[in-house]
Amino acid sequence: MSGCGLFLRRAVAAQASRAAALTASRRRLRTSSRSPAFAKELFLGRIEKKGVFPFPEVSQDELNEINQFVGPVEKFFTEEVDSQKIDQEGKIPDDTLEKVKSLGLFGMQIPEEYGGLGLSNTMYARLGEIISMDGSISTTLAAHQAIGLKGIIMVGTEEQKAKYLPKLASGKHIAAFCLTEPGSGSDAASIQTRATLSDDGKHYILNGSKVWITNGGLANVFTVFAKTEVVDSDGSVKDKITAFIVERDFGGITNGKPEDKLGIRGSNTCEVHFENTRVPVENVLGEVGGGFKLALNILNSGRFSMGAFVAGMIKKLIELTAEYACTRKQFNRKLSEFGLIQEKLALMARKAYAMESMSYLTAGMLDHPEISDCSVEAAMVKVFSSESAWQCVSEALQILGGAGYMKDYPYERMLRDSRILLIFEGTNEILRMFIALTGLQHAGRILTARGKELKRGNVTVLMETVGQRLRDSLGQTVDMGLTGNLGLVHPSLEDSATKLEQNVYFFGRTVQDLLQRFGKTIVEEQLLMKRVANILINMYGMAAVLSRASRSIRIGLRNHDHEILLANTFCVEAYFQNVFSLAQLQKRAPENLDEHIKKIAQQILEKRAYICAHPLDRMS
């Protein structure tokens, strides 16, 4: 092991006594009442402040530990990783991969007792900022631990953890996540890979093929999802998905050649085939028939980190682009003096600030077990950061002009690498449906229960309902406690906080209206649900930047005045986007063109072509 690797592991070992105390405190936290999920409460027109205001902090000890990790990792990625070579050759060199292993990066979130670094979600996000300097390496590591081995940590037995995690932590073994198939992408429930219990009941016989598997050609250990026969509670036999830990050494496993990809070209992506692979029954991961839920939980748990990974990339891109803008001259002026160039840099900065704030806010929630399910928050981070990455890299290329288009510079590679972010770990279209539907279901349950209480004559619920209607009719100011003398947001951000409160209140009222209008059929209204998700993402971003900037002002962080500018600009822009989207969600709104959009698409799909006559055509 290298000196850097030893340094990192000693740093972890040094915190053992503190870790015991932390574990004890976390156990105590688990016994306390859980706070409502922030995102879900927004659907009810409420701001759940716990865990969000004030912005999560780490202790000074943990901050020191994070900074000890950062130095060696940053030095390695800056001085030793040749990203251009990795991209051109389509492979991470063996010596580079070995150094990644020696730094302990294959075991970042594996508990210390199994040889990993045992990093919290916040520490993992911080290292992710640096690892993002190379898209191929960051993808390889994410596929290994964010999804490949995550199931073992989440639901594995003690025997499974002891057997597999130590070698996975060291990088001696590499993990892959095998879910996607030729006929099932986003529709994971439709997989065809099958595992059949052997006659002696000791093995499952696994047959099927998986596609686009990151680390598929490198992995020794696979988390594989397959259909199995399960006896239901009523005695009937049904097909349900089960997860398995599958070793390459079990036999019957082959993989195709590495895919020739647009971006992240150095990561290994290929087909993986299972032919009569004998998997011991003790290698069932979780419950038989519980694989679909486990797959969703694995994917949900890792999405938050994309915000930190992307923010690291965008911050580096800002440095490179700003340097170019300040030195390149056109028309006897530096590019930095032109308003349209300044606009692009400001956009990149506020996108980076927002995704960074959202990611670390979500990491802080995940690190505190009293905060309820954060799957919606994690999905919002993924959608916002992936789309912002694509937008920011595109704007950077525009500033750089021809230089940005040339392979001699890193910019075009960053553009290619960032495009996959909108697709993997759940396409953004699917995630928008998940975000909207999860929140609407939560609101539906609460509002249905409230309706029953009204029918029973519950005085408290009756007064709340009357008060809400009076506020609507009188147009009274919305006050959710973010501002004022006892407010949680700094006075310099008060106007933005008020805008967030207004958005949240009218969003809650709009959700009520939508559920009354559509009921359960709302799931079919995808364009509507997209707007619901977009509003929610904006509001979560507003809350994150307001909370973070308020903390920065109060503790006197350097350049906090710049944070105020970024937060206020982001919030005003998001507020007016939300106002327009809320208007579109009203019944018979003239701003809503959904029926026109559907009709255009239907006419194209009928002919499977662009159907307008050519502009040069004439009537005969």
Instruction: Strand order, main sheet: write it out.
Output: 1-4-5-8
Report mean pLDDT, rounded to a whole number: 90
Biggest sheet features: 4 strands, mixed
Secondary structure class reads alpha+beta
The total beta strand count reads 10
Strand content: 5-15%
How far apart the termini lie comes to 80 Å
Number of helices: 22
Shape: globular
Radius of gyration: 26 Å
Residues in helix, %: 55-70%
> Which stretches of 5+ consecutive residues score pLDDT under 50?
1-32
Tell me what you see in this structure:
- This protein is an alpha+beta fold.
- The protein contains 22 helices and ten strands.
- The chain has helices at residues 3-14, 16-31, 38-42, 60-79, 83-89, 94-102, 121-131, 135-148, 150-155, 158-170, 291-302, 305-327, 339-366, 375-400, 402-405, 411-419, 428-456, 459-474, 494-518, 526-555, 560-584, 594-607, and strands spanning 175-178, 194-197, 203-214, 221-231, 237-247, 253-255, 269-280, 284-285, 329-330, 333-334.
- The strands form three sheets. The protein has a four-stranded mixed sheet with strand order 1-4-5-8.
- The protein is globular and about 70 Å long.
- The chain starts with a helix and ends in a 13-residue tail after the last helix.
- The model is unreliable at 1-32 (pLDDT under 50).
